[in-house]
Specification:
The structure holds two protein chains of two kinds. By secondary structure, chain A is α+β, with helices and mostly antiparallel strands. Chain A has three helices and five strands, in the order βαααββββ. In chain B, strands 1-3-4-5-2 form a five-stranded antiparallel β-sheet. The chains are: A alpha+beta, B alpha+beta. The interface between A and B is large, with 42 and 38 residues.
Amino acid sequence: MSANESLAGRAFPAITVETLRAYAEASGDPNRIHLDEGAARAAGLPGIIAHGMLIAAYAAERARDFGRERGGLELRRFQCRFRAMTLLGDVVTISGRARREGDGGAWALELETTNQRSEVVMISRVELGSRVSGDTPR
Amino acid sequence: MSVGESAGPFVEEVTPGRVEAFAAAVGAPRGEVPSTYLTRLRHGEFELFQRLGIPLERVLHGEQEYEFDRPLRAGDRLSYSTRITSWVRKRGDLSILVFETSYEDGSLPGARVALARTTIVVRGQRP
């Protein structure tokens, strides 16, 4: 088994107003710049922008998929940095690398989220580990 | 200054309905709580924005970090407080704020479930 793997790019559906409305409601984010073109422009933005945390959610799910494929690894740590805004109609693709860490079944993923203009919109790092036995608080 | 200013505690239940809506919204499979679900529990940050007079339209998300002591589960009751741990002004028209939030299991006081660190960029804001 490889200790270092390349993750093939996975594209997500283009961002629509419906996507953002559903996410705004589910995440409880009232910020109008994600829902209203006028509000976004009044705030000095080029138009409605996607919630950064929606783009982060896509990367987290990509990492969780990786963990599921390897026997149900749990997500221990998630870090992301936003580099560019995501606009309506944008298609984001996630790719990156996965590296084994230590010898306890842990993996570290370094992911890159890019858009159809080949801009990096977000970089993230996810640490996955084996299931913790019991629920002992640490 | 504002570093050290805090809000909370807040309590929120991780209900099956909220989990399902969030999972559907981010394209995650049913049956588990999506890893970024904690973005719902940011009332501390919103209250601090209000208290400091920072309008949401001027806020951009810079970075986000989560550390999990255990996975979240539907049925969890989470208690959390948020504190400003850093405020740096850059160039005169940009401020970088860092919020830290500790999430505890409401049914096991003192048992931390997760830690969140949110870096926010505030545009065009003067103190």
